[in-house]
What we know:
44% of the residues lie in helices and 11% in strands. The protein is an alpha+beta fold. Strands 3-2-4 form a 3-stranded antiparallel sheet.
Amino acid sequence: EFKSYTSAGKLVPDSLVVAMVAERLAKPDCGSGFLLDGFPRTVGQAEALEAWLLERDIPLDVVLNLSVPDELLAERAEGRRFCDSCKASFHIKFAVPKTENTCDHCGHVGLSQRDDDKAEVVQLRIGEYNEKTSPLIGFFKNRNLLKEVDGVGELPVVESRLRDALGSVS
C-alpha cells in the first residue's frame, strides 16, 4: 500500500504513515532516543507525532531542515542508480561507477533507476513537498525546535553541518 503512493510521486496518507511510525517508535530499541528521517511530512503528521510523544512524556529535542534548491534536489534524485544484484548505490554525476553501467562491488552489468527517481515523478514529489511539507518549517520554528542546515556541498561538509546542529542539542 505504501509503495503504490510513493511510486506515483504521491505522499502516503497521514493515517498510514503515523501508524507505521508509532509502531516503530514503540519498540524497545527506541526507548533511549531515536532519529526520524523524512517524517513528519505534513502538519497533520507533526501534530499526530506531537500528541503521541506527549502521551508518553517523550520530549522532541530538535528538528533539522536540510535546505537544498529544488533544481539540485531533482538532479540528485534523477541521477541515482542502483545495482539490481547487490543493491549498491551510484549516481551518474556524483558517484559514477568505474565502468559505465556496471557495479563496482559485484560486477553486475545493468544499473537501474527507481521508479520514483524518474524526472516526472521527481517533479511531482518536489511539488508535493512545496505544497504539503514546507509548512512544517513554520510549525517547528514556532515551537523553537527548528534548526536550518545548508544541504548544498560535498557529503562530508553537509555531514559536518548536521553534526554541528545536533551537537548543540542537550
